Amino acid sequence: MPSEFSRIHYEEVTSTNDLCKEEHKKSSTITVITADKQTQGRGRSNKAWASPKGNVSFSFGFTSSGLIDGLSVKAGLTVAKTISKSLRRPVQLKWPNDLIFESKKVGGILVEAENVEEKFILVIGIGINFSIVPKEGHWGDLNIDNYELKEKFISELIKNLLKDIVDDPSPDWHREWNEYCVHLNQEVELENNEAYVFKGVNNLGRMIGEKSSQTYEISESSLKVKGLY
User: Fold this and answer.
1) CA-closest candidate to residue 130, choices 191, 62, 69, 79
2) What confidence score (pLDDT) does residue 1 get?
3) Last residue in a domain, options 129, 146, 170
């Protein structure tokens, strides 16, 4: 895949993911859409994701010959590493795609796909609270209100997504993901109220859960973690 990209920035949009998908259909070039504010931001299962000013709304669109297993989990690792290194905030990961800082959710990943002419347009949507007034008790932010730092972060994030996702994905990325996990080896509860000990993720981004001395592979779900919002 080519490593060239085009970036368009807006002060306000409905959804960066929607715009990214439409812009990418016009060109084979990797497309990046950023915005200071979204009015119709969304998370998994179409849950509303508030995106006021002070949030970074970012979408990265590219064409692939097929779907990529665990893409949102893998992208979460890239985001966490970029924040930790370029902004010096020790962000951790909550499976499958939440960004955690000081026990609060400061961001998330939403991957969407569309089949076009026997290929797939994949869009990685990333929302991060840099400096906001939280509207819900489990929200937090990075406490950063600096335009130059935001732009530096966005540049680093684009570079790292190109490297980690598009150009040369590491087959052992999941081992590094486990190092960033905030609930590794802890008991977690799934949406169906079943409890497991979280043993990490595999190279498909699936959760490895342990229960009654047996291990299970579990596809994307939501987790409850004791002591974490």
Assistant:
1) 79
2) 44
3) 170
